[in-house]
Structure formats: structure tokens, C-alpha cells
Amino acid sequence: MMHQITRRNFLKLSGTVASAAILMGPIGYFSLKSTAFAQVDDGTRIVPVVCNHNCGGRCQLKAYVRNGKITRLITDDSPDTEKMPQLRACLRGRSTTNRLTHPDRLKYPMKRVGKRGEGKFQRISWDEATSLIAQNLKDVLNKYGNDAVYIQYGTGDRGAVSGRFSAFRLMNLLGGYLSYYGSYSSACAAYAAPFILGSAADNNSYDTLVHSKLIILNGFNSAETIFETNSNYWLAKAKAAGAKIVVIDPRYSETAATFADQWIPLKPTTDTALFVAMAYVIIQENLQDQVFLDKYCIGFDEAHMPEGVPAGNSFKSYVLGEGDGQPKTPEWAEAITGIDALTIRQLAIDYATTKPAQLMQGLGPQRHAQGELSVRMGAVLAAMTGNIGKLGGGSGTGEGYRNNSLKIKPILPIGTNAVKTSIPVFLWTDAIVRGTEMTAADGVKNGPLKSNIKFIWNLASNTLINQHSDINKTKKILQDENLVQFIVASDHFITPSLKFADVILPSDHAFERDDLGYPWSGDQYVLLGSKAVEAPGECKRDYWWISQVAEKLGMGAKFTEGKSDVDWLKEIVADAQKNEPGFPAWEELKQTGCFKKEANLHVAYAKEISDRERYPFKTPSGKIEIFSKTLHAMNHPEIPGVPKYIAAWEGPSDPLIEKYPLQCIGPHIKRRTHSIFDETPWLEEAEGQTMWMHPDDAAGRGIGDGCKAKVFNDRGALVIPVRLTQRIRPGVVAIPQGAWYTPNAEGVCQRGCINILTSQRPTPLAHGNAQHTILVQVAKQ
Ligand SMILES: Nc1nc2c(c(=O)[nH]1)N[C@H]1C(S)=C(S)[C@@H](COP(=O)(O)OP(=O)(O)OC[C@H]3O[C@@H](n4cnc5c(=O)[nH]c(N)nc54)[C@H](O)[C@@H]3O)O[C@H]1N2
Ligand SMILES: Nc1nc2c(c(=O)[nH]1)N[C@H]1C(S)=C(S)[C@@H](COP(=O)(O)OP(=O)(O)OC[C@H]3O[C@@H](n4cnc5c(=O)[nH]c(N)nc54)[C@H](O)[C@@H]3O)O[C@H]1N2
Ligand code: SF4
Ligand SMILES: [Mo]
Fold first, then answer.
1. Which atom of ligand 3 is nearest to the CA of 51?
2. What tens digit of pLDDT does each residue of 395-404 get?
3. 89 CB less than 6 Å from ligand 3?
4. Which domains can be identified in the chain, with CATH numbers?
5. Is the CB of 756 under 6 A from ligand 3?
6. Is the CB of 703 under 6 A from ligand 3?
7. How far is CA 588 from CA 494, 528, 572, in A?
8. 248 lines ligand 1 (CB under 6 A)
9. How far, in Å, is the centroid of ligand 1 from the Cα of 665?
10. Ligand in closest contact with the CA of 735
11. pLDDT band for position 20 (cuts 50, 70, 90)
12. Average pLDDT in the 560-583 region?
């Protein structure tokens, strides 16, 4: 069934809403049911807006607007049904007014006047700003070619006509740009999963959880990280339906606290060892689903290996220690993971005997030194237990997906990039320093680069400094004006990244413009937010000033095709109307702010399992490749043919632990979306920036609860208040990622930005960001 939202008139309704509380169309609804406020005819308009940051969710908010100001924000108040749960906003979305009216909003274009990174700027006109950008872009293109232009990763604006999409479009008109592949989110999962399952880390949708008897959440913390607006709704339903929930996480996360029957606090980076030992128990107890393995997989045992691979390379041989003499027993894993053998044994037996069972992994475990292996190993366990392609089961890889997206072209058309070379997203700092020397061994695709990076667009991104690793190293690279010639950045604030730009531009906020919003998971709805209030000062949407730059480069007409940002949005909606049955017209969608379609349960790889002849896995063999010949052929010690536990550099067994005895992870927390909302007073009140530390670790250091501590390693240092808690395993500390880098004169970050401590060493296969893998020392400040 499909629900269509029918046209209603907001303004007329606002005075009479009590009687028209819920307006039901024949096959659709639209609701203004809440609120005493709407009943007061004081000129208040209720405007649907869209929260468009990168948290995985995409929630509906409605702004009460009076005299040009937002007086109140409410969230989705349409009927809440299992078929279509409300899209309710979290604390961040609901506090957005703090952000909109913040005194530090960047309101005017500015150019750098001091040295790069000093943070000294002077106000300029939009005309001067766009001329400077156009001149420098032209100069770099002439001198170095299109490979020299890089559009930085950045996720602040997930709207349909974002600055980054606009920059892609312009650069494609100008002959292309150096692109990247992968993301800071799921570099390892996205890269590694296709080798075993033939596609990116697909898993069953969250609404299937109610069919699971056992749910193992590995490094998955949706209570804070959301992933899909209603992930927690479905976890709660699953728990109510009787599922046992196990959370594996070095921290007793909000998800563990809310849902878990059992918490398994392993040492960071050791998931693969835990999983391998579970495989050992399953094999020992003969609990594996041998029929599933024989039918759908290669590489599990010696009888099912691809042609031409020497004996002894199967997964089972590895687990039983036939080659290396080390059976991967729970006792072996206990020494590595810090989890006692009995717990590992019991978890293995539970997983193998409770059917169906979902092993769902967050992205935390793969943002680690050997992050590719935990993803591959999760899939092996799911195959061994026959849970892949089953309702209530799961693929063992990533978080939940939906994959039944609406038939909508969701973004501004960006054209085609004539430059085919791309770099791993994490290696852009390398591409500044030694781009032309980078090879396939660095993960460069269709290389070599013809130039190092000379021009950077940093739009809706704090990755230039704050969100990338090893800030002190990045800083030196950016400060050297002989390397990058020009950096343009746009944002709401002069963030740590903007301080390193040459021209900074004030962006309007999603609530200050019309915008379309889509959720991460390919879910079944679209939000149309409308401009609720005017943007302050001279704030503009990135599309507007990029069209001015296009104009100055003689590409104005080609870039805009005569269309404004809103014209493009209208075109997307008109197109959706053609392709998606029941999709409302622009004016109609403006009123309701939302088009929802009932979702189907998504079971990842269901087709491959139900009809393997017709739908083989998209791997070279057409099967689940527990052994990958492709990976084996790379002949790389850290890229084994079957997933194996390989100790992480800066992990618990790295000799460096003598000097830096604590593992430090950087979780994503509820009070921020990355660095966004760090400035928001209400959210600072809800949750300050603190480091979690176990009392045992604090004791020897003389650190009490609330004390300030210095955290450091060879790369840098920060100061942060300590929260003593039993909710983290001893030997591990957690510093929430995303705090704004705020150095003192000695370069010590006073706010607690973890990326002053992280490393730029990439993971072996995906060349991804191992930002949770660091060793540190902590001292009382
Ligand atoms: N509130 C909020 N929500 C967000 C975001 C945000 O910044 N704030 N960011 C969004 C984005 S872009 C992304 S990519 C996702 C990120 O989602 P994730 O990457 O899943 O989030 P993390 O907090 O990095 O990691 C999840 C959990 O893994 C645990 N963990 C760390 N290391 C290990 C390990 O070695 N093994 C195991 N088993 N667990 C480990 C952490 O303690 C944490 O509780 O979240 C999205 N949602
Ligand atoms: N140590 C460590 N580092 C990490 C991670 C980690 O787990 N640990 N996680 C990584 C992950 S998963 C990700 S996705 C990245 C995120 O990296 P980023 O996407 O760079 O991080 P954000 O903090 O979301 O920055 C987005 C910026 O966009 C701005 N913005 C918001 N809306 C708009 C708009 O409409 N227009 C413009 N022009 N600007 C806007 C915001 O103010 C903000 O400064 O960080 C990565 N960094
Ligand atoms: S930050 Fe994410 S979860 Fe929170 S309201 Fe916005 S879209 Fe929803
Ligand atoms: Mo991310």
C-alpha cells in the first residue's frame, strides 16, 4: 500500500485546526493534529523544514514562525503506525534554533589577510570573493590541469542542491576534477564487503529485527548514531517481541544501556579475533550450517576451494591452526580480546543455535587499522550459521539498509567527470604533497595524477582540519602556500577548517531555504523543507555564488541553464512525479513537507539465496567468497585470502603500548553530528565534551571525576575533563569525535578534538581512515 499526501492549506488551517485535527484523504493523510499553538491565530505560520546534516536519519521538523522568527520547533505529528512510524527528530534537530541565531554565525564573505591558518580575515564583497575564486581556479587549471582541483569530502549539507553538487557540476563543465572514492564513514566496509558478498555491506532492514530471536550488535550504537530514523524504534519492538540482544563494544554505549541483555566489552581492534574464535567453537561443536556453506560458499574447507590454490589455505584450516600450529580457540582469543573464553564459547553456541539471528555491525569496528577484516569475518560467521538471505537473519557486515529507494533522481545533475583518476578519500593530504608520485599501491585508480592538488573546494566540510587525522601534520601541509595555491570554503561558522581557507563564504542554513532531504538508508520517503526565516547578513546558498563563479569563467548559462536553486528542486519534484506513482506536485509537497511510501522488509541477498542459479552473488565465482582468490593474489601480508586476525598497529599488542598504555577511541555521540552543534549551548548542557575513563586507570594517575587531563602521543596533545565511569573497559579511553580544534599557544587542543592524536596511516586494502586506532598516555593536568 502506498500513502499519498494530499494538498492542504496550512495557513487557512492554522486557526481552525482543532476541528480538523487529522485530515485523512482516501489513501493518504496529512496531520496538523498537535498543538495548542496552532489554534492561536496570532499570525504564526507552521513551516515544514528539513534537518539535513549527516547523521543517517532524516527527520521531519516543523517550525512555528512569527514575525520572521522561529518561536518553536516540533517534529512529525502524523499518525504513528508500524507501517509508517513517525520521523521524529532527535535532540540535535530540535535545538537548531540555537544554531540559527548563534552570535558567531559567519555573515559576510571574507578573505584571508594573515598567514594561512592564522585565522585573520577581512570582509569583502560577494563580487570580490567570486572574482578571487574564479581567477585562482583559472590560474590553477591553466598551470596544472584539472587533476589539480579537489572537491573535499564534506557532509554538512545533504540537501539536493548542495555546494558540493554545485562544485561537481561546475568542475565537470570545466573539464573535470580529481575525485575520491570511499568515505570517512565506511571506507573498509564498502571496500571489503564486495570481495566476499559481491556488493557493498548490505544487511537486512531494521524492521526485520522483530523477526530475529537473537541480535548481536557489534560496535553498533544506534541509540546515538541513528543510521535510519527509526532504527531504535525497531530495536525496541524486537526486544519487546522477545529477542535477546547482545552488544559488543568497549563502551557500555547508550545502545547497550537501552537494549542489551549482555554486554561484551572487548579491546578495540580485536573483533576479528573474537569472531574467529566463535568460528572455532562452531566447528568444534559441528554446529555450522554445512548445507548452506557447501551450496553458497567457497573457501570454507579444503573440499570447497577455488582451482589452483595450494592446500591448507581454507578458512577451516586457518581456524584449526593446521598451517600455523595455533588453533584459534576461545583461550587464544581471550588473551587478545580481554573477553573470557567461556563468554566467547557461549556466544558462539548461542549464535549458532538460535535461529534466525542477526549479526549487525556498526561502522566503529571498521574505522580501525585492520577494519577490512572484521567486516569480512562478520560475513563468514553469518554464512556459517546460514543467516544470510533469511528474514530475521542478516549478513554480518554493516548496519541495516533498505534499498527500495523511491524512483527519484535526488540531486542537481552534476554531469560527467572527464578526469578518471581517483584517490582514496583519506589520502588527500598525501595527494597535496606527493600526488604525482602516488601509485596503485596507494590506492590510486586510473593514475597517475598529472599534478599534486593545488586548489581545494571545502564546502559544508570540516574535514580540511577537524575531521581528518593528525591535525598537526595536516596544518603544516596546508600552511605551506607553495603546496596548495587556493582554498575556498563555505560554512555557517568560522570553523577550524575555515581558518585554513583563503576565501570564506557565509552559507544559509537549510531552514533558511527550500530543500529536499533524503535518508541514508534508501528509505521510502522524501522531505521538502521550506524557507522558514531569512538568512542573516549576506548568507547565500552555495549554488548561488558558484553560479557567479561560473559566470566569471564564461560558463554561467551552461551552469544554471537559467535556473535558480528552487527551479532545480522543482524540476526534481516534477521528475519524481513522472516516475514515482502518487508523488505529489511541488505546491502540495510544500504544504505537507513529506512524501512517505510504505516500506517493504528488505532481506539482503534474499534473491541470491532463494534462486542462486538466476541470481549468483556478484563475486568472480558467483558464490560467497570466504576465500577470495583476488585478495590472495595481491600477495600482501595484511590482505589474506580468508579473513584472519591480524594485530593492529597501535593496537593492544603493539610494543608502543609500553610508552602509550591506553587505547583511545572516538565515538560519535548524541550531542553533535560530527563537529556540527559543538557550538550549541543547549547541547553543551545536555552533554559536555568529556573523556570516558575507567576508575582503575584513573587511580594510578591521581585523576578524579571531573578533573582535567592531558591526553597525548607523539602526534599531539589535548586537554579534556575526565568522566570516570565503569561504562568503559580498563585500558581504553573514549574521546567523542567532533569537538572543535582549539589550540593554545603550544598547540595543545583545549576543547578535546581527538584528531590531534589520530594517525594518517591508511588501512591496508581500502586505504581507509583508522581513526579509532590510537595509543595514548593520560596525565593529570
Ligand atoms: N549523533 C550522531 N549520529 C551520527 C553521527 C554523529 O556524528 N553524531 N555520524 C553519522 C555518521 S557520518 C556515521 S559514519 C555514523 C558512525 O557510526 P559508527 O561508526 O557506528 O559510530 P562510532 O561511534 O564510531 O562507533 C560505534 C561504536 O563502536 C564502538 N567501537 C569502537 N571501536 C570498536 C571496536 O574495535 N570494536 C567494537 N566492537 N566496537 C568498537 C564505539 O565505542 C561505538 O559505541 O554515525 C552517524 N550518526
Ligand atoms: N577521529 C575521528 N574522526 C572522524 C570520525 C571518527 O569517527 N573519528 N568520523 C568520520 C566520519 S564518519 C565523517 S562522515 C566525517 C565528517 O566530516 P565532515 O562532513 O567534514 O564533518 P561535519 O562536522 O559534519 O562538517 C560539516 C560542516 O558543514 C557545515 N554546514 C552545515 N550545513 C551547511 C550548509 O548548508 N552549507 C554549508 N556551506 N555548510 C554547512 C557545518 O557547519 C560543518 O562545519 O568525519 C570523520 N572524522
Ligand atoms: S540530526 Fe539527524 S536524527 Fe537528529 S533531527 Fe536531524 S536528521 Fe533527525
Ligand atoms: Mo560518516
1. 6
2. 999 998 876 6
3. yes
4. 198-403+614-632 (3.40.228.10), 655-780 (2.40.40.20)
5. no
6. no
7. 37, 10, 14
8. yes
9. 10
10. 2
11. very low
12. 96
CB of residue 116 inside a 6 A radius of ligand 1: no
Atom of ligand 1 nearest to the CA of 737: 7
d(CA 697, CA 516): 48
**Residue 402's pLDDT is what?**
76
Amino acid type, 754: I
- Mean per-residue pLDDT, 96-117: 97
What is the Å distance from ligand 1's center to 357 Cα?
22
Do residues 508 and 490 lie in contact, with contact meaning Cβ atoms separated by under 8 Å?
no
CA 763 to centroid of ligand 1, rounded, Å: 17
Model confidence pLDDT, tens digit, residues 336-373: 999 999 999 999 999 999 999 999 999 999 999 999 99
pLDDT of residue 403: 67
Whether 458 is in the pocket of ligand 2, judged by its Cβ within 6 Å, is no
Long-range contacts made by residues 545-550, C-beta under 8 angstroms, separation at least 24?
545/126, 545/129, 545/130, 545/490, 545/505, 546/163, 546/166, 546/167, 546/169, 546/170, 547/166, 548/126, 548/127, 548/130, 549/130, 549/133, 549/134, 549/137, 549/170, 550/170, 550/173
- 22 within 8 A of 38, measured Cβ to Cβ: no
Q: Is the CB–ligand 2 distance for residue 358 below 6 Å? A: no
Q: What is the pLDDT of residue 600?
A: 84
Give the residue, out of 153, 459, 490, 491, with the most ligand 2 atoms within 8 A of its beta carbon, to mutate for a pocket test: 491
Are the CB atoms for 628 and 196 separated by under 8 Å?
yes
pLDDT of residue 40: 54
Q: Closest-lying ligand to the alpha carbon of 471?
A: 2
Of 85-89, 237-241, 627-631, the least confident: 85-89
Per residue, the 3-state secondary structure of 69-127, as one string, reads EEEEEEECCCCCCCCCCCCCCCHHHHCHHHHHCCCCCCCCCEEECCCCCCCCEEECCHH
Q: Atom 4, ligand 3: which residue's CA is nearest? A: 90
My answer on whether omega of the bond before 356 falls inside 30° of 0, hence cis, is yes
* 760, containing H or E segment: none
| Distance between CA atoms of residues 10 and 12, nearest Å | 6
The Å distance, Cα 464 to ligand 2 centre, comes to 10
Alpha-helical regions (H) of 198-270: 222-225, 231-240, 254-259
Ligand nearest to the CA of 680: 2
Read off the pLDDT of residues 525-569 as tens digits, 9 standing for 90 and up: 999 999 999 999 999 999 999 999 999 999 999 999 999 999 999
Q: How many CB atoms lie within 10 A of CB 660?
A: 20
- Is the CB of 454 within 6 Å of ligand 2? no
Q: What average pLDDT does the segment 499-515 reach?
A: 98
pLDDT at 14 over 90: no
Cα 772 to ligand 1 centroid, rounded to whole Å: 9
Residue 673 Cβ < 6 Å to ligand 2: yes
Per-residue pLDDT at 34: 39
CB 305 near ligand 3, within 6 Å: no
Q: Is the CB of 93 under 6 A from ligand 3?
A: yes
d(CA 30, CA 19): 14
- Collect all residues with Cβ–Cβ distance below 8 Å to 17 and sequence separation of at least 6: 32, 33, 35, 38, 39
The model's pLDDT over 428-469, given as tens digits with 9 standing for 90+, comes to 999 999 999 999 999 999 999 999 999 999 999 999 999 999
**Ligand 2 in contact with 61 (CB < 6 A)?**
no
Q: Is 112 in the pocket of ligand 1 (CB under 6 A)?
A: no
Q: Is 666 in the pocket of ligand 2 (CB under 6 A)?
A: yes
| Nearest-ligand number for the alpha carbon of 494 | 2
Residue 22 pLDDT class (50, 70, 90 cuts): very low
In angstroms, the Cα distances linking 89 to 92, 94, 558 are 8, 6, 38
User: What is the per-residue pLDDT for 518?
Assistant: 87
Residue 500: how many other CB atoms lie within 10 Å: 25
